Amino acid sequence: MNPPPPFMYPPCDPNADATNLRMAMRGVGTDERLLINIICNRGRDQLHQIAAVFQAKFGRHLRSEIKSETSGNFRKLLVKRFDPPIIIKAKALHEAMKGAGTNEGRLIDCLAFTPNCELMAVKAIYKQRSGRDLTSRIATETSGHLKQAFIDLCDGNRDESPVINPAQIQGDARALFKAGEGKIGTDEKVFIKILCNHAPWYNMALNIAYGQTYKHDLRKAIDKEFSFYLKSLLLALCQLPFEYWADRLYSAMKGAGTDDRTVVCVMSYLERNELQYVAALIKARHGKDLVAVLRGDLSGSYLHAALALLGVAF
After folding, report:
1. Residue span of the structural domain in which 283 resides
2. pTM reported for the whole predicted model
């Protein structure tokens, strides 16, 4: 499928939006429908303008007002729309390693597809918020080959050249076969060195080339040779970002229960055209209609906000 086309939210009047948001949260009760109609139908730049006008007109912090007037996943979804992607990732990395235990899946979400220049900004924001170096923190929170893979990604030294050398692809495919299916045991370091140090488009081409030379593609080989979170990370690195988000969002609502943290993360992080593209990928890859899945798993204002972000009437 072709990537999502460029998208611009319709023009808005920040002054009118700020006034309407104030009215929606003034007095007893909250007009949640009005909050959704404004916040979920504006781009991040527009929301920043609206927040500035809100502060100037009413002397109140818009995000704080929303937090005090809403709750649960609905509140999280609205508030995260005000954060740029680098802030979302920095916060998610902090939450993934806060307290006892580590959420390795969230580390994969944040690091697998972050380009070098953006990663530098994420690391700086993380250090500002937590007072700790991101690479050092990950080194203390993970172990073994998974730790090395995360550290390689955190270095921000991926080869992001748009030009792919076919000879290099073939050489890397052979190296990966020899390190995995072509021997007894697995040389994890070879997989980490190659996949963690190239851009997604290179790894995607490598995945295809591997399948053209051997019995199946590279993702199938990784699925056979690896386990747990290292497998999840390496599989992610062999995908393009929107394919990954489509699978993550679908898995979050598949079967009994809902992984609301992932749903909120994906729905708030992506813009409308990207969410619509993810919906098309879910239909193509899993045969499911995202709107129907959302209606089956979410409810109330949380559901209405998710639908509005997709551009679907509720």
Report:
1. 247-310
2. 0.90
